[in-house]
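Holo prediction — zinc ion.
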Amino acid sequence: MLPPDNHVHSEYSWDALAGSMERTCERAVAIGLPSVAFTEHADFSISELMPENWYPEQWQRYVEVVDGHSILTPPAIDLASYLETLERCRDRFPTLRILSGVELSEAHWFPDQTADLLHRGGFQRILASLHTSSARDEDYADITASIKRGDPIAEYRGYLAEAVRLIEEYDGFEVLTHIDYPVRNWPHERIPFDLSVFEGDIRLVLRTLASADKIMEFNTRIPLDPRVVGWWRQEGGKGVSFASDAHVPEAVARGFKEAAEVARAAGFKPGADLFDFWVRD
Ligand SMILES: [Zn+2]
Ligand SMILES: [Zn+2]
């Protein structure tokens, strides 16, 4: 049995252009997944679209050009339609446990907007994410661009330091997502990625997360390095949440078999019921 997929996007995430809640549920049932959480993006940070980064034509409607910079302001979730579709899917797929959820970006920078959204949404899975570099006082701090342009080691260090601040300053979440997010855009042609360079920084995030009694996410978009899962166990981590971070139905639970093996080898096991996070063995 595969672990629950606690981080999936549907058409209610602004960047999931080919997302579909219904087809994702269909696929989840077909592959025998016990549970899926639709954690749509709540992005309050604005960011700059860099000319060298490809982005789909459909994003143009969220872009404004300011002093020659293309500034992207992500739209809010259409909460009413999202909740309605969720209910329809629950009726249509009674054997699948379908959880509501949200992926909060930089929640510690936007406490009021975040609190308001959580109050209106009543979400079952609340994920805390960072998608920006740490330079909040600089304009348009989007890490997928800055890691390609700038010094990637400093950028990733800044990201991890900001993750510590997020955990310390914001308590309203359950799971910290993709600690390896900047690695997705690592400029390998310029500088090889060496995880060991970041061991101290990553361990500090994990230690802070463990003392806050939160869960670490095992994101399979790029499979999380097994060493990180081991460090999480050593730093006292109580549980693991599996996440495909799928933006299309076909990607739900992608890489979960291998991820589950890694988590087991690191000392984690399925929770008391199939729908739970994995726990310490
Ligand atoms: Zn994310
Ligand atoms: Zn996501």
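READOUT: The chain has a mean pLDDT of 94.
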